[in-house]
Amino acid sequence: MASHSPLFLSITLLTILTFAECGSIGVNYGRVASNLPSPTKVIHLLKSQNINRVKVYDTDPTILTALSGSDIKVTVDLPNELLKTAAKKPSFATNWVQNNILPYHPKTQIESIAVGNEVFVDPKNTTGYLVPAMKNIHQALVKFNLHSVIKISSPVALSALQNSYPSSAGSFRPELIEPVFKPMFNFLRQTGSYLMVNAYPFFAYESNADAISLDYALFRENPGVVDGGNGLRYFSLFDAQIDAVFAAMSAMKFDDIPVVVTETGWPSKGEGNEIGASVENAAAYNGNLVKRILTGAGTPLRPNAKLTVFLFALFNENEKNGPESERNYGLFYPNGEKVYTVPFTVNDLKEYRDKQSPVVGSGRVRALDPVKGGGFGSGSGMWCVASDVGRERLQMALDYACGEGGADCRPIQPGATCFDPDTIEAHASFAFNSFYQKAGRAAGSCYFGGAARIVTQPPKYGKCEFPTGY
After folding, report:
1. Catalytic residues
2. Rounded to two decimals, what is the model's pTM?
3. What is the pLDDT of residues 144-163, one digit of tens each?
C-alpha cells in the first residue's frame, strides 16, 4: 500500500496542537481557605500548566479582572442564596448580569454561568426557584446580546438519581422530574446548552470497597463490569456514573442534550475510615481520567461524546467543613507546589505513567463474566476504530497505517481472517487499532488527522477479533 508522509505530518501536528475534538480539561478554583495566593499568581499558575478552562464559585471582581486577556475560558456561579431573588425579580437578574458579567466579558472569556450548585441537596430548599432563575438570567443575557456566547446551566449531584446501578437503569428522583428536570431540560435544549454534572467515584468506592475494585475506580486495567440491562461492558466507575445520567435523560427523551462534568476528583488524604484517600490514588484517578478524556474516549453508552471535565480542585482548602478529605482535594498546595503530578495536555501525557498500587478492599467487581477473543484478557478496554469522515480520508489514513505506520495489516489482506467484511471502515478500523495497540495506547496514537476515535467496547466487524496488545 502507498505511504503518505504529508498525512503523517498532519497527524503529528494535529495530535500535538488539537485536542479540543477529543475532550477538554478544566479545573475548579475554590477559595474556602485562608492561605491562598493572589488571583494574579493563580492565573499565572493556570497558564504555566496550560490549563485553559476554570470554574469559580462566584463572580469575584479581582478574579475576573485577573483573568482578563488570559485566553482562559471561565464558568462563573450565581450562588444558591441568590436563586430566590433571581427567580422572583427579573430586574435583579438583569442587574446581576449588568454588574457581574458585562464589565468583564469579552476580555475575560466567560463561557457559561452555573445557576446555583447542587441545588437539590441545598438545606435551604431552593429547588423550586432553580428553573425560573435560569430563565431570568438567560433573558438578561438576551437583553445584552450575550445569549449566543454564554450558556446557562446548573450543576447536579448524582444524588438527584433515583437509580444509578446498573447504568442502563439510570433514572431521576420521581419528585424532581415534572417540577424541575422536565422544564430544565426543555430550557437547555431550547438554548443549546448542556447539563452540568458533579460526579465523584470516590464516594461510591469508599462506601463499597468490599464490592468495587480500586482498579475499576481508578481507570486501571480490570476485567470490567457487564451491564445486564444493555450488555455493555464498563471498565471504570466514572463511565458507569455518567452513563447512568445519560440513561436517565434518555428515559425522558432528552438524549440530545450534552453533559459537562463540572466537578470530579479524588482526595489525597482522609480520615482513618475514608478508604482509598491517598496521594497515590488521587494521582492515579485524576491522571488516568485526563488521559481518558484527552485521547478521545466517550462512554460505553455515548462513545462519540466529547466530554469537558473540570477537576476538583485547584488547591487544598483548609477552611472547608467536614471530614479530612474535604480539605485535601487540591492538585496544588497554596504555595504553588504540586500535591502530585497530573497531566493537563496531550503533550503532558507523553511523560505520564500511572504508578500501580495494591488493591484496597476485596478487589472484586460485581457482575463479571469471561470475555472472548482477541487477546482481550489484558483488560485494556480501549480500541481504536475508524470515524465517519468519508472514504477518501479513511483510505489515506489506512495507507499510512499499513505503510509508514507499521500496523500489522496482514489479517485484512484477501483471504485472511479479517478481510471480511471487505469495507473501508472495517479495514481502516483494524489497521488503526493495530497501530494504536502497538504504540501502547499512547496519547494521540488514535487520531489519524481526525479519522479515528477510541471506543471502550470490542469492535464488531464480522468474525474479526481485534487485539489489545502485541
Report:
1. 118, 263
2. 0.79
3. 999 999 999 999 999 999 99
